[in-house]
Amino acid sequence: MQKSTYLEALNKKESYFQKYLRLLSKQLKKINSLVGNGKEPSIQDESKLVYYSIKVINLDEKEYMEYQDILGRFRLIQHINSTISSLTPRQFEKIFPITKDYDGEQYGRKDYYFTRAMMEEKGMDQEIGKDVESFLCDYHNWQIRLYIVETMSILSKLQRLREEKDLFTELPSCNECLTKSKITKVKRPVYLRLIK
């Protein structure tokens, strides 16, 4: 019984991937048609493109990827980031709402308040612009976290295939992006203080 449930879940996941891939293809055709006719795509069209693209990247679980697949994925990520850079934090929040975790300060991690403060500091109605990567790293949403992990993984694979240093060995400070948070010092109780 367990085996069939697992296979059903696997088939469902594959069908989600196929669904989002079909929707992404349809959205890309729509945007290309608009641009071909000299019209600007609407914010809603760009929002759908970002949503479908990130879903496709997060749901695709190819074990083995050839150089052309990795390069194609990298170009898709660049295109997504370029589209995100033209959105405002308010528009981005409508696509991927902030995860409603409120205990980040207690555990020293990102939460709703951290993300909200970061967005207000950048300006809710200002374009995200060139610092897309830092914006995404500071954004508290699990879909975006998966997207960041996939982005790092693709960059690392691309560098290894080009026989360059691996991303994580070359830039250890890059990991800081995934773990950076507003950490506050908590006063230790007396029974936990160091004895000199």
Notes on the protein architecture:
By secondary structure, the chain is mainly alpha-helical. The protein has one domain. It is 65% helix and 0% strand. The protein has helices at residues 2-36, 43-59, 67-85, 89-95, 104-107, 112-122, 132-138, 142-161, 167-170, 176-179.
Q: What's a quick, concise take on this entry?
A:
The protein has 196 residues and is mainly α. The chain has helices at 2-36, 43-59, 67-85, 89-95, 104-107, 112-122, 132-138, 142-161, 167-170, 176-179.
Largest sheet: none
- Would you count the extended β strands for me? 0
Helical content stands at 55-70%
Summarize model confidence as the mean pLDDT: 81
In DSSP terms (H or I, runs of 4 or more residues), the helix count works out at: 10
First-residue to last-residue Cα separation? 60 Å
Provide keyphrases for this structure.
196 residues; mainly alpha
Topology:
Blueprint: H1 2-36, H2 43-59, H3 67-85, H4 89-95, H5 104-107, H6 112-122, H7 132-138, H8 142-161, H9 167-170, H10 176-179
